[in-house]
Every structure is written in structure tokens, then in C-alpha cells.
Write a structure and sequence with these properties.
single chain, mainly alpha, 5% strand
Length: 398
């Protein structure tokens, strides 16, 4: 019967839901199994979808069914319009998957603020601001001081996977939510999005793409932190700012790259390393063992280390470009040989929503401010998965 009952919804709500999901009329029609003319008729108020069709629309647009019965589209934050995007992909359009992740990140931030208000607590303030003309080395040092990252601590991490977790924990501890898009149910092409930042205060948010390697994710994490310090919400899908970008945008991107590099590899510490002092700047060659050893010490990728050495005029750009091509070939071989599969479900969930967000929601539950149903909804899991996620979030052995 529901397939015959018309859904009394406003056409503007149908248009809003489709456009904020970054779907064309053709894509929506194909996704719900109707002719595009039917979608056009609904949006022009010549016809109404059935309730069954509205359910399909809600699922495709990843919106709750109830929102379609609002009298007009919600005002305020527009997930896609409030971001500056660096490099256009797919003729400047966002994929529906990316549109959803941007919206979901924004909504998680709002939930976190609401939970804090319910608990009567104030969010931690990052307390860092900067302008593009500031000294990136100084900003990098301020970041390390705010996060409590010392070279001795950094050198104990040993590899980029541990380093990423440590940087992420430190940034979350400083009042920034961090999410990693990945797992079986959240996939975004790395060519479309490497990361994005919601710079709104308090509780700004960084989202990175889990498809990137650990070293790449670390650099993106610190790069996006640079954008937060600048007060810029941005979606990025490139590492190096191209010449097609406007000069002010290129300057901002270079500044964030410099801040990330200075945070990860402080200039004075790096130049004081014995292996660096033993080299003749721009002339000496570096062995693979030397590069890998120094990269491990700072918990960064080999590429990031070499870029920093180029910037500090210790190696030539030609040497870096040669190594970069060599590393790219190695990655292709590793991908072919790597086993397929995903991490355990609880790890996927925690990586996606972020440890800081999970701990906050669980704190609300234990303070009797949130029901188990609300907690499972905020975490996006069935209630039975809440205990194992809690143990993982707080570091309690299973």
C-alpha cells in the first residue's frame, strides 16, 4: 500500500537533499530505479513520489526520512558551500560519497559540542593562530610545544603507523577532532580527497583519507592543522599547489606545507643530525639506509624527509625526483603483493569516528546524560558493539 500513497513533501526539500548529496537528477533516478523524467516531475511539483520511493530517495541521499517533511530546507551550514576546494575533480563536482563524509563530519562536531554542553564542560582550546606571512618554523615549534611532542618522544615511535597514531592522539588531546575515512563502508578516492579541515572554533575537525599511506596521512594531518590555525576550512586533493591556483591560495598551501614540515622535522634538530652534518650540502649522495634511518627517527615517510632536505638545501631536487620515482615503483609492487581485507570492525569504527569523539560520547553515557540507544546512534553501531569499542577507545585490553 505504501507504494501507492503519495508522500506530501515540498519539492524544495527534494532538490535540497539531492544537491547536498552532490547528485544529478540522472544519478538519483538511476540510483532509485526510475526515469529521470519522474525526478524532474517531483522537483517541479508536477507529481509526488510515493512513500516507498521517498524511502529510496532518503537512502540514496543518506538523509533521515523525517527531514524530507520539513516545510523548507534547513539554513546555516552548507556542507559543500562553506569549503574552499583547491583542485577541481569531476568538473568541479563533489562525489556523493565525499558530500556525505563532509556532512557527517560536520554533524559529529555538532554532536560533540552538544554532549559537552550536556556535561557542563568546556572544550579544550587549541590556542594557536597564524597568518600566511608568519615564520613557519616558529609556528611549527609552537605546534610541537602545544602538543607536547619532543624529539626524544618522536624518535621512539619508530615507524609511520605508530607516528600517525601518536600525532593523532596529541592533536585530539589539544581540542581538535580527528577522523580517518576508511574501512569497508567509507571509501573516497585519494585523487578526490586527501583530507579536509573544519576550522570552526571550538572543536575544529580534521579528516584524512585512510587510503593514503601512513606517512602521507601524517603530513596531511599536520597540513590540515595548519589550515585550522589559519582559520580556513578547505578540502584538498593535492600535495603540491599547482600554478593554476590563484597566487594567494598557492601562498597559503605552501605555508601549510612548510608548517607541516617544520612541525614534523624541526630545522635545527634535523641539521644537527650527525648524518646531515657529515654531508656536503647539495653535493653528497645519500644511501637508502641513511634515508630510511633518518626517516624512522622522525617517524615520517622517505619522501617527506627528502622534501624537507631539499627545502633546507641539503640535497638537490633532481636527487629527490629520482628517489620519488623509485619509491613510486616500490609502492606499486607492495600494493600488488599486499593481502586484501580490513581491520576488525571495532577498529574501523574507532578510526572513522575518532578516539576523542568516542570517549566524549561514552563519558556522557557513564555520567547518565546519554542513553545506550543514543550512544550507539552517535557511534553509528548496534548497541552490542559499544563495549568493545569502549575498551579500544580507552586502551583497555579485550
Amino acid at each position: 500500500m505504501s507504494g501507492r500513497i503519495k508522500a506530501l513533501v515540498e519539492p524544495a526539500m527534494l532538490v535540497w537533499a539531492r544537491e547536498t548529496a552532490s547528485l544529478s537528477q540522472e544519478e538519483l533516478a538511476e540510483g532509485i530505479g526510475v526515469a529521470v523524467e519522474r525526478v524532474q516531475a517531483w522537483e517541479s511539483d508536477e507529481d509526488k513520489p510515493s512513500i516507498a520511493q521517498l524511502r529510496k530517495i532518503a537512502k540514496k541521499c543518506k538523509r533521515p526520512l523525517s527531514v524530507f517533511y520539513l516545510p523548507e530546507p534547513p539554513q546555516g551550514f552548507q556542507a559543500l558551500r562553506d569549503f574552499r576546494r583547491l583542485a577541481a575533480a569531476r568538473a568541479g563536482r563533489f562525489s556523493s560519497e565525499l558530500a556525505y563524509e563532509v556532512r557527517a563530519a560536520h554533524e559529529r562536531r555538532l554532536v560533540a559540542l552538544e554532549v559537552l554542553e550536556t556535561l557542563g564542560e568546556q572544550p579544550d582550546a587549541l590556542g594557536l593562530t597564524a597568518g600566511v606571512n608568519d615564520n613557519a618554523e616558529v609556528i611549527g615549534m609552537r605546534i610541537r610545544e602545544r602538543l607536547g611532542i619532543t624529539l626524544a618522544r618522536q624518535s621512539r615511535w619508530g615507524d609511520t603507523s605508530k607516528a600517525f597514531r601518536a600525532w593523532r592522539d596529541a592533536i585530539e588531546g589539544a581540542g581538535v577532532l580527528v577522523s580517518v575515512i576508511g574501512g569497508a563502508h567509507h571509501q573516497i578516492d585519494i585523487e578526490e580527497m586527501r583530507g579536509f579541515a573544519i576550522a570552526d572554533q571550538p572543536l575544529p575537525m580534521i579528516v584524512v583519507n585512510g587510503k593514503d599511506r601512513s606517512g602521507g596521512r601524517i603530513f596531511t594531518l599536520l597540513h590540515e592543522l595548519g589550515h585550522i590555525i589559519l582559520g580556513q576550512s578547505v578540502i584538498e586533493n593535492t600535495v603540491e599547489p599547482g600554478d593554476t591556483l590563484p597566487a594567494p591560495v598557492r601562498a597559503m598551501e605552501r605555508f601549510c606545507n612548510q608548517v607541516a614540515a617544520a612541525s614534523l622535522m624541526p630545522r635545527d634538530d634535523l641539521l644537527a643530525e650527525a648524518v646531515v652534518r657529515a654531508k656536503t650540502p647539495l653535493r653528497s649522495l645519500w644511501s637508502d639506509e641513511e634515508i630510511e634511518s633518518l626517516a624512522r627517527r622522525y617517524g615520517v615517510s622517505r619522501e617527506a624527509l627528502l622534501v624537507r632536505l631539499v627545502e633546507l638545501r641539503q640535497v638537490t631536487n633532481a636527487f629527490y625526483q629520482g628517489k620519488r620515482a623509485e619509491y613510486a615503483r616500490q609502492r606499486e609492487e607492495e600494493i600488488e603483493e599486499a593481502p586484501s581485507g580490513f581491520a576488525p570492525y571495532r577498529q574501523q569504527v574507532l578510526g572513522y569516528i575518532g578516539r576523542g569523539f568516542a570517549r566524549l560520547v561514552l563519558q556522557g553515557y557513564h555520567n547518565n546524560q546519554l542513553t545506550l540507544s543514543a550512544v550507539s546512534g552517535y557511534l553509528g553501531v548496534q548497541a552490542k558493539y559499544v563495549p568493545p569499542i569502549e575498551r579500544l577507545a580507552f586502551g583497555v585490553p579485550a
